[in-house]
Design a protein that fits this description.
Elements: H1 11-25, E1 37-42, H2 48-59, E2 63-68, H3 80-90, E3 93-97, H4 101-110, E4 115-117, H5 125-139, E5 146-150, H6 156-167, E6 171-175, H7 184-191, E7 196-199, H8 202-206, E8 211-214, H9 226-233, H10 240-243, E9 251-254, H11 266-269, H12 276-305
The structure holds phosphoric acid mono(formamide)ester (CP) and norvaline (NVA).
The site of norvaline (NVA) has 9 residues, from helix 6.
Length: 306
Amino acid sequence: MDFLSSADFSGREIGEIFAIADHFKQGNYSFVDGGTVLALLFEKPSTRTRVSFEAAMIQLGGNTIYIDASTSQLSRGEMVRDTGRVLGSYVDMVAARMYRQTDLVELAKSSDAPVINALTEMEHPCQALSDLYTIREHLGKVDGARIAFVGDISDNVANSLMVSATRIGASISLVGPKGFKPNGTYVNLARENGKVEIFDDPKKGLNDADIVYTDTFVSMGQEKWAEMRRKLFKPYQVNSEMLGYAKRSAVVMHCLPAHRGEEITSDVLDGKRSIVWQQAKNKLLIEKAIILYLYKKRRKELDSVI
Ligand code: CP
Ligand code: NVA
């Protein structure tokens, strides 16, 4: 089993992953077999995802190998599928951060080892699980939570968050510029399970929100359009005035890295209503739970073959 898309895990499976995370949070330990190897194949930069996956695997008793794709033969034109076939014969699991979701899918198809999406231009499914776990921790439950995603409502983080959130009973408002559309495929997928509303007026979009979520206006790979994007999304900066449109109890989330003064102001990011640092911390817990979940699933598959 791979984890390539937020669509891969049902609400029940997300609940199972949260239960494993709770188990770790309560101070319990679980391990993979010594010598289990996770390869991290990264085409784009990362701080949190890379380090939390590496730390997670080490804490589980396994090992990791970090592969900067620019130093691999991919950079000289080796096909993704040939890379996947070989990597999958050396290691037990691969976490890949790739420019294109289609490349990630190709990598997974050719790899015998399970592949985890560590971010593509379309999705960031591990981030969504860790964010929803944080919401559950903060509110005491995630069922019924109202999330307002403000800014670039068509980005990878928004896509994954809306799909996973609606599978576990949360609803989401996408708040962005008039005429700027979220990705219809993900909106439709999310609407199969829950409520997704689209607003251009922050006053309406944030009304009743428990969570105000934002992400960069310029995602990795969009540098060419940086100036245009900063201008387009400027009115959607999460600042104290914007926060005033949400419930008094609403808190702020951001997947990080933050661009202070662009999508969020420093006073909000560091303020009392920010749960951003707790959110970042939970990535380690959830990466650990995801690795263990896929590892156990894989063991079961192999056992049934023997
Ligand atoms: N949130 C997140 O994925 O951060 P990194 O890009 O640092 O991994
Ligand atoms: N949307 C951002 C998320 C970074 C974790 C990007 O893709 O750059």
